[in-house]
Every structure is written in structure tokens, then in C-alpha cells.
């Protein structure tokens, strides 16, 4: 938002008569920006403009009377943003880093005969379970779980084919039969074809919506430029 002083631009028709104004208009269009002020803000010219990367981010634009001694009208508008949600941090226990020597020493200090004396089987189990939970919490460190990134280029059908292929592979590893090998090979072929179709459809969708969502296109471009995407099945 600001006073860009390009009064010869017709924002409704996206036309301009001045050279500098045309260069600025080309820059806005090449950057896939949306301009939301369509009424005059000083005299008969639109000098104060509001730009956004997506049209949906700005709403309810109003041109109001100048404030104080200013000869520019006020611009009131609403910016639509999503508040950050409080995400619960998920953790898991890293048992391979557990201090098992300290666990054994801790458990060895407990007088089990005295602790479990005159207790029923259920009571003994609850006591044992409670002590084990305590010792695990005490000597096994926690690790934050990373949220898995969603593979947006994979359709539901592609994910289903991948899971089916993985099941067929596990079956073949278990049986080792020629029949299961052939089934696994066919499942791999179907999954690979569906992944390619899904990726192609996703890229076409991104390219079609580039005017309204240029960031997704640039992310896809950077990934394809840096890495050669191959099948990992």
C-alpha cells in the first residue's frame, strides 16, 4: 500500500498512456499482483493503491474523506489473515537412547518381596506396571515428532495404489512365490503409472492457477530445478 503517483493507469482496463506508468503496470502484472483501489484518491486520479499477492487477501475497500490537511483520500480496507493456531507438540520416546543401566539399578533397589507381600495378582500387576512406567519416564528421553509433509502431488488413487503395491511386496517377501512376484510387479507398474498421472495433473493445475497462486508455481519450479524426480518405489 502507498502513494505510487502513477495517475495515468486505468486499473479497470489495465491500460496506461505514460511510459513510466506502463512500466509499473507491467511490473504489477508480471509479479501476479492484484490492485484493489479502483476509485480516485486525489482529484480524478488513482494515486494511492493497495497491492496483494492474492485477491482474496483484501476485502471491503472504501475511499473516505481526506484526513486533516491531506489532499489524498483515506483508504479503508480489511486484510484477511488466519490466526496462528496453538499446535500441540507431539513427542515420542527414544528407547535406543534409554539409560538401561540406571534402570536396572533403580529397579534393584526396590524390595519386591515387601512391596508385593499379601497382594493379589491384579494388585501386583498394577504395582509392577506403575514402577515400569515410572522408570521409563525417568530414564528414556523424549523427542519431538516432526509433522510429515503432505505429498500434494499424490491423488487419493495414487496413494491407494502405493499402499497396494507395498502390501504385495510384503506378501512376496513372505512367500517368495513366482505368482506373488508377478502380482507385485503388476502392482508396481500400476502405482508408477498412477503417480506419473497424478503428478502431471497437479502440475497442470498449478500452471493453470499461476495468476492467483504464483507461490505454489515457484515452489514447484525450484523443486524440479534442483532435483531430478524419480520413482522411489
From TrEMBL:
GO terms for molecular function: catalytic activity. GO terms for cellular component: extracellular matrix. Gene3D superfamilies: Endonuclease/exonuclease/phosphatase. Residues 1-75 form the Endonuclease/exonuclease/phosphatase domain. One of its GO terms (biological process) is cell adhesion involved in heart morphogenesis. This is Endonuclease/exonuclease/phosphatase domain-containing protein.
Amino acid at each position: 500500500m502507498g502513494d505510487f503517483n502513477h495517475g495515468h493507469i486505468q486499473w479497470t482496463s489495465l491500460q496506461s498512456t505514460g511510459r513510466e506508468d506502463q512500466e509499473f503496470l507491467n511490473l504489477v502484472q508480471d509479479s501476479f499482483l492484484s490492485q484493489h483501489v479502483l476509485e480516485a484518491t486525489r482529484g480524478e486520479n488513482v494515486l494511492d493503491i493497495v497491492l496483494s499477492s492474492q485477491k482474496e487477501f483484501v476485502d471491503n475497500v472504501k475511499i473516505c474523506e481526506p484526513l486533516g490537511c491531506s489532499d489524498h483520500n483515506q483508504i479503508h480496507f480489511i486484510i484477511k489473515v488466519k490466526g496462528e493456531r496453538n499446535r500441540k507438540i507431539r513427542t515420542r520416546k527414544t528407547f535406543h537412547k534409554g539409560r538401561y543401566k540406571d534402570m536396572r539399578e533403580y529397579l534393584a533397589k526396590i524390595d519386591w518381596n515387601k512391596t508385593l507381600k499379601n497382594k493379589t495378582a491384579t494388585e501386583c500387576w498394577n504395582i509392577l506396571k506403575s514402577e515400569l512406567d515410572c522408570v521409563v519416564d525417568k530414564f528414556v528421553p523424549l523427542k519431538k515428532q516432526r509433522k510429515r509433509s503432505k505429498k500434494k502431488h499424490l491423488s487419493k488413487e495414487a496413494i491407494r495404489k502405493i499402499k497396494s503395491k507395498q502390501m504385495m511386496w510384503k506378501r512376496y517377501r513372505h512367500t517368495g512365490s513366482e505368482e506373488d512376484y508377478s502380482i507385485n510387479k503388476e502392482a508396481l507398474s500400476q502405482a508408477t503409472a498412477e503417480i506419473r498421472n497424478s503428478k502431471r495433473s497437479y502440475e497442470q493445475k498449478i500452471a493453470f492457477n499461476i495468476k492467483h497462486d504464483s507461490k505454489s508455481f515457484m515452489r514447484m519450479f525450484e523443486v524440479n530445478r534442483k532435483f531430478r524426480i524419480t520413482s522411489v518405489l
